[in-house]
Amino acid sequence: MTVASSPPSRLPVRDIEGTQPKPRIREKRERDGGGRGDGALAALFIAPAMLGFLVFLLWPTLRGIYLSFTRFNLLTPAEWVGLDNYVRMVKDPIFWDSLTVTVEYVFINIGVQTVSALAIAVLLQRLTQSAILRGIVLTPYLMSNVVAGIVWLWMLDTQLGIGNEIIAGLGFDRIPFLADETWAIPTIALINVWRHVGYTALLLFAGLQAIPSDMYEAAKVDGASEWRMFWRITMPLLRPVLAVVLIMTVIGSFQVFDTVAVTTAGGPANATNVLQYYIYGAAFGRFQFGYASAMSVALLVVLSAITFVQYRLTRAGQTDLG
Amino acid sequence: MRIRTRTVVALTGVLALSLVTGCAQGGAAGAGSNTVTYWLWDANQMPAYQACAKGFEKQNPGLKVKITQMGWADYWTKLTASFIAGTEPDVFTDHIQKFGQFADLNVLEPLDDLDIDDSAYQPGLAANWTGQDGHRYGAPKDWDTVALMYNKKMVKEAGLSAEELNGLSWNTKDGGTFEKTIAHLTVDKNGKRGDEEGFDKNNVKVYGLATGGAGDSDGQTTWSPFTGSAGWKYTDKARWGSKYQYDSKTFQSVVDWYFGLAKKGYLAPFTDYTDGANPANAQVASGRAATSFDGAWMISTYYDTKGLDVGTAPTPTGPTGKRATMMNGLADSITKNAPNKAGAKKWVQYLASNECQKTVGSYGIVFPATPDGTEAAVAAYKKKGIDVSAFTEPVTDKKDSTTFSFPITDYAADVYSLVRPAMQDVYANGAPVSDLTKTNDQVNFILGQ
């Protein structure tokens, strides 16, 4: 018995200590291909996306950076000019003007959009579970920017637009929404808020769904008001999602183009000449692809810096949901 | 495992190949060696050119013409893209504004061997298409001028006659009979006319003159009939000038007077109509404006507007004692890398021939470049009950009228992008016209590079 009983009593001990037998088997399986098989399969799944990334993102970005140091009109070979395009950019008053106009647009667009989207998302979560309502909220997002721009352009026309007919019918002065330099940028910003707010609201709504309902129940038991629950529960726990949404919308806003192109074409008198539109004009209107690339690189740098700062400030990678 | 890795590589390769070949297929689609591809932007002209193509195919058995039409804005973007991708058409309708840039980019085929005779076309049309290198790059196609379109009913109600509108004159001091007329045609909310006591310029119901925007760098249908009849020229030379003259006192005083009409309430202000959304013809059609300056390419649009009885009058006589209008002509150009260059040359020769131009003229939508073609168009318009003499007289009557061309220089796109906002600043924001001197310096700096 003693002989027979001793080995079994030692086996579990060795097992618990994690010594030889089992790890050796695991190692062997990995070496024989179990893990490598997964790796190859993963590579297979990643390959199309990686190819797309290389062809449509990395290569154009690197090529754009290279072109920013050249004079290039598309049809003749690029000519290396060093920092000339960047020097020109720094001295170009229209570039700085475009940047200012863009920042103005971003502030109005993001400010109004985020607050409205948050309000819609909270209302959707706290008041209704209706999928139809969620669908309705998303409707403007289904329309293309160009179509939305043209429709709003007609509706807001000073003399012939239905919007101004209503304003005049109510006894107010007509407002040159897109033809006056004071109104043009806020109007374009609000048109884009109208189109995107539903989508942003649904992203935030998804974030809200991740907050456990028992927190609200507990708060209610303690007698907290909706207002208090919003500030003490919703906002802190939504922060990571809100941060990501903000980063995405800021990047998107800086790249506003199509609405401007169809409504004001940068006018009146450059009042809506946002950076992206100016870049487009330099490249496809004036065939100055080198200079346009330099401005695009500047935009890339600005956006990277803003994204980094936003990410750090909003602690986007951390959650308060313990 | 090796098989799997190989599969990954193969699949990736197939995907990459499909991307590459997919692009290539897209580019080569639709053309064959016996086909001549031809692009134009005006949908109204499509049937006329299809008729021309039929005549051409009959004369050239084995050759086919494939016509593609796309809107003005898409047209130039797509054309640029096609030059880069190598999918350009054999022949395309060219515009004088774009010509300089295309010539500079070296994407046009010289047409010297087509032996185009300048005297076979309306004066000035053929010569405009000669590059700085002395080669011809466009075969004359058609032409247009600008005239005053007016709502006959409103003019009658104002007690004015067609003769009066045909004999208008202007000056920068008191605006002449032109300013008096548009003032009289302007009506405020209370029914008071612009030249009556108590007229409310801030509440205008019908403007005497529709706005066509700030006119960009050429003012074709806005200020150019006035700057032209004041004797001003865009550049120091008729073609390929090295200096623009937006700093001229004459130019600036005319522009000041012209946009000043808006401050008086006779011309619709810039802010009234979003640039491009509601062009001059829409303002006249909706009854918000009594008159407008517009080009010959818009004749059918005005006359086809339901409920609108339109009249036309020539541009008013200016300080030089002459009427003036821009006379712009389009041309057909062949691309340097045209897949079917031999066929393209035959097609362009046919397009520029009296035969095709008479066919196009018979559709009554545009004035072809040859005198016979023009005559055919005038007859076709007449058949439709449209009198186009306000557009044709400036070309035939050299005593009382003068015509001028779009400015033809290098860097036309740069000039446009600098002058357009500057003119808008004057019109929309009331910036002083003297600011245009600074813009002119910037323009000439670019031209001098």
Automatic annotation (TrEMBL), chain A:
Cellular location(s): Cell membrane
Alphabetical list of PROSITE patterns matching this protein: ABC_TM1
Residue span of region Disordered: 1-35
Keyword Membrane included in the entry's annotation: yes
Annotated ABC transmembrane type-1 domain residues: 99-310
Gene3D superfamilies the UniProt entry points to: MetI-like
Ranges annotated as spanning the membrane: 39-59, 105-124, 136-155, 183-206, 237-257, 289-309
Keyword entries, A-Z: Cell membrane, Membrane, Sugar transport, Transmembrane, Transmembrane helix, Transport
Protein topology in the membrane: Multi-pass membrane protein
Predominant subcellular localization, coarse grouping: membrane
Similarity remark: Belongs to the binding-protein-dependent transport system permease family.
Protein name according to UniProt: Multiple sugar transport system permease protein
Automatic annotation (TrEMBL), chain B:
Pfam families: SBP_bac_1 (PF01547)
Cross-referenced Gene3D superfamilies: Periplasmic binding protein-like II
Keywords: Signal, Sugar transport, Transport
CDD domains documented for this protein: PBP2_TMBP_like
InterPro entries registered for this protein in UniProt: SBP (IPR006059)
Range of residues in the leader sequence: 1-26
TM annotation in the entry: none
Superkingdom of this protein's organism: Bacteria
Family (UniProt): Belongs to the bacterial solute-binding protein 1 family.
Protein name, as recorded: Multiple sugar transport system substrate-binding protein
Organism: Streptomyces umbrinus
